[in-house]
Automatic annotation (TrEMBL):
InterPro entries documented for this protein: Beta-lactam-related, Beta-lactam/transpept-like, Beta-lactamase/esterase
Protein name from the UniProt record: Beta-lactamase
Coiled coil: none
Segments forming domain Beta-lactamase-related: 19-373
């Protein structure tokens, strides 16, 4: 008996086979995968359970928290502004946000932030959840922060600070926070089911996350990695149902532009397809020149903490990383999420891809990698 609904066009049956195999071998709880090629949807599959407690089924448009896939949304917005001549990625952040340029941050550029090289992966100030949700206290804390290393000299994943920092630049230029700007400029015109700050009307239908048995925990609260992903403990991770956990409506409705997106598979795949080919009769969002700029490698190898996970970073996007997140090639760019979610685009192949799920197995687990491998074979790669 089939475990999923939807379809895969002729030639893309291998993606459907891997989607079914994920349910058999991991096992999945609920999941979806969508693929566009040439601006046309060629795969749309969904299945399983969106809410383990009630047994509510996953539906075609079910949205789920996708964590750092938010960075891809914010980065598309930044590159759109650069393409329009409103943002120079190599200019100091302080050109757009004068109060930022203090305490050793004067030379930090947006590209350093997008490449995780700015030296501010975490904040010294201890903020409450309410302060984080209010936006302005985070911005004041960023303004008062001293870099942990000489900006540009090394890199380390910038977690939540990435989104607030680039997001404030977007706000200074457009007058809108990044979640609102995305909806105005991209999400609403294209009808994409992707948000940074989930609307109240969408809460009841979203998928609820569950932890996979044996999922590794985080180090202690003083560990720098833990501080990066929890904003010094103000955001619960990996806890889900506690206050301020990732099933909490209060958290989901907050703009957390570094790691707080909620989206359906079709919403995320549609974003990347719109970026590289255009969809629904719209011209592509990002020109070939803009994509070339975005996929130039900025960071790779050992980070400031001394780890090398095999990731390669361009300007705001994870690049094709064979030992970490294999994609389709040198024109591929995207972002993944802590629960295993993954989305990317590639203008050489004309592809927009997204996989989302609600059983959190691990960062970089094999479920999406299998689907991408099947897609690559379908494309003749």
């Amino acid at each position: 008996m089939e475990r999923y609904s939807g379809w895969a066009d002729e030639g893309f049956g291998g993606v459907a086979e891997e989607f079914a195999r994920n349910f058999e071998e991991f096992p999945e709880l609920g999941a979806a995968v969508t693929v566009f090629t040439g601006g046309r949807k060629v795969v749309e599959l969904w299945g399983g359970v969106a809410d383990q407690g009630s047994g509510r089924a996953w539906e075609r448009d079910t949205a789920v928290p996708v964590f750092s896939c938010a960075k891809g949304i914010v980065s598309v917005c930044a590159h759109l502004l650069a393409q329009e001549g409103r943002l120079d990625l190599d200019a100091p952040v302080s050109r757009y946000w004068p109060e930022f340029g203090r305490y050793g941050k004067e030379a930090i550029t947006c590209r350093m932030v997008l490449g995780h090289r700015a030296g501010v992966p975490v904040l010294d100030r201890m903020l409450t959840f309410e302060e984080i949700a209010d936006w302005a206290p985070v911005i004041r804390a960023v303004e008062g922060q001293t870099p942990l290393w000489e900006p540009g000299a090394s890199y380390e994943y910038h977690g939540h600070v990435f989104g607030f920092l680039i997001g404030e630049v977007i706000r200074r230029i457009t007058g809108h926070t990044p979640g609102a700007y995305f909806r105005q400029a991209v999400g609403d015109p294209l009808g994409l089911r992707a948000w940074i700050g989930l609307p109240t009307a969408e809460l009841a239908g979203r998928a609820r996350l569950v932890e996979a048995e044996g999922r590794p925990g985080m180090p202690g609260p003083e560990n720098l990695l833990t501080r990066i992903v929890t904003m010094n403990g103000a955001l619960v991770f990996p806890g889900l149902d506690e206050p301020h956990g990732w099933n909490d409506p209060a958290l989901l409705g907050t703009e957390l532009p570094g790691a707080g997106a909620t989206a359906s598979a079709s919403g995320l795949a549609g974003l990347y397809a719109a970026a590289v080919t255009g969809i629904d009769g719209h011209r592509r969002l990002l020109s070939p020149e803009t994509v070339t700029d975005a996929v130039r490698e900025i960071s790779s190898g050992k980070g400031w903490l001394g780890f090398d996970m095999g990731a390669r970073w361009g300007s705001g996007f994870l690049l094709d990383s064979p030992s970490f997140r294999p994609m389709l090639g040198e024109r591929s760019f995207g972002n993944d999420g802590a629960g295993g979610q993954f989305a990317f685009g590639d203008d050489e192949f004309g592809v927009g891809f997204a996989y989302v799920a609600n059983r959190m197995i691990g960062h970089g687990d094999a479920r999406a990698t299998r689907l991408v491998a099947a897609l690559r074979e379908s494309l003749g790669g």
